[in-house]
Amino acid sequence: MALPAVLANLPLPIIGSPLFIISHPKLVIAQCQAGIVGSMPALNARPASQLEDWLAEITETLAAYDAAHPDAPSAPFAVNQIVHRSNDRLEQDMAVCARYRVPIVITSLGARTDVNDAVHGWGGVVLHDIINDAFARKAIDKGADGLIAVAAGAGGHAGVKSPFALIQEIRQWFDGPVALSGSIATGGAVLAAQAMGADFAYIGSAFIATDEARASEAYKQCIVDSSSDDIVYSSLFTGVHGNYLKPSIRAAGLDPDHLPDSDPSAMNFGAVDAKAWKDIWGCGQGIGAIDAIVPVAERVARLRREYLAARARLCAA
Ligand SMILES: Cc1cc2nc3c(=O)[nH]c(=O)nc-3n(C[C@H](O)[C@H](O)[C@H](O)COP(=O)(O)O)c2cc1C
């Protein structure tokens, strides 16, 4: 199946994934101008009325950039909506997205036909994130256009499946757009995602260690200094299993190697405890490849160089 027009012909097959608290217009704009899809959770705009200002800033800045760079325009942007019942802002945030005709909506935590219909109504495309094949089928049944396969080792709420298993299963029955999420931080890994059947690499943690990310310097430096050994998978902090940096857990007075499990009924995203994410740092396993805090443009330029080099190497072989 051909990719929807908004996702076709990106200069690099990369989506900068939405990051709670961390993604904001500055990061999204830098990602889009660097030629990858930039994204942010609607819930990062607080109070809710700020979403309108943020979408105005992103659309106006990118339009001006495109007018000045007609030969290399920006990539499209995406807004992430948590469609879980505890998100009491969903209706209001969707109305703002409709006014700005947000080109790509990334939905998380439960697929919803009404949300998909609304996005299609303004000409947008919906990508739904899933951690297994059953959720993938449900999402497509309910009208999502594409899937984000969140594999083991992803930052934030990660799955437990090998990326090979997930993509192989999905590609048995689905030929629409698929992005692969989890530990991708080099151009070679982006090419590998494509080789195994994904259309896009979905990259989060590598963009936390950038100048434009809205994270503390300590968090960014911790990503530079850490590797996969420093990541722990736990449900303690939000009720859903996710990957976190051990040093931040130690700093909060807990032993990251002996964490209790949490009660899933505690899951709450509308009034999510931002402090948990502010102090307990979400992060995927792929950060061993991140060795400096750099501007987004530099991180994307390195991904591009590595991607082209890996492709040339394989073609030559
Ligand atoms: C700190 C942090 C916050 C995140 N917040 C969100 C979020 O609000 N919504 C969402 O759909 N995914 C969220 N994610 C998951 C990412 O969008 C993505 O799936 C993941 O970062 C990809 O794996 P990687 O970090 O190994 O590249 C978050 C991830 C991290 C690390």
Q: What does it look like?
A:
The protein is of the alpha/beta class and 317 residues long. It has one domain (10-215, 285-316): Aldolase class I (TIM Barrel), CATH 3.20.20. Helices cover 37% and strands 14% of the residues. The chain is built from eleven helices and ten strands. The strands form two sheets. Strands 1-8-7-6-5-4-3-2 form an eight-stranded parallel sheet. Strands 9-10 form a two-stranded antiparallel sheet. Strand 7, helix 7 and strand 8 form a beta-alpha-beta unit. Helix 1 (25-33) runs parallel beside helix 2 and helix 7 (187-195) packs across helix 11. The structure holds flavin mononucleotide (FMN). Residues 17-20, 22, 41, 80, 108, 129, 150, 154-156, 181-184, 202-205, 282-284, 286 line the site of flavin mononucleotide. Residues 17-20, 22, 41, 80, 108, 129, 150, 154-156, 181-184, 202-205, 282-284, 286 line the site of flavin mononucleotide (FMN). Belongs to the nitronate monooxygenase family. NMO class I subfamily. It holds the Pfam family NMO. This is Nitronate monooxygenase. Keywords: Flavoprotein, FMN, Monooxygenase, Oxidoreductase.
Indicate the mean pLDDT. Answer: 94
Anisotropy-based shape: globular
Structural class: alpha/beta
Number of domains: 1
Put simply, the count of helices is 11
Q: How big a fraction of the residues is strand?
A: 5-15%
The value of Rg in angstroms is 18 Å
Enter the CATH topology name: TIM Barrel
| Helical residues, percent | 25-40%
The low-pLDDT segments are: 267-272
Q: What's the name of the CATH homologous superfamily? A: Aldolase class I
Strand ordering within the main sheet: 1-8-7-6-5-4-3-2
Number of strands: 10
Question: Span between N and C termini?
Answer: 29 Å
Family: Belongs to the nitronate monooxygenase family. NMO class I subfamily.
Protein name: Nitronate monooxygenase
GO molecular function: nitronate monooxygenase activity
InterPro entries: Aldolase_TIM, NMO
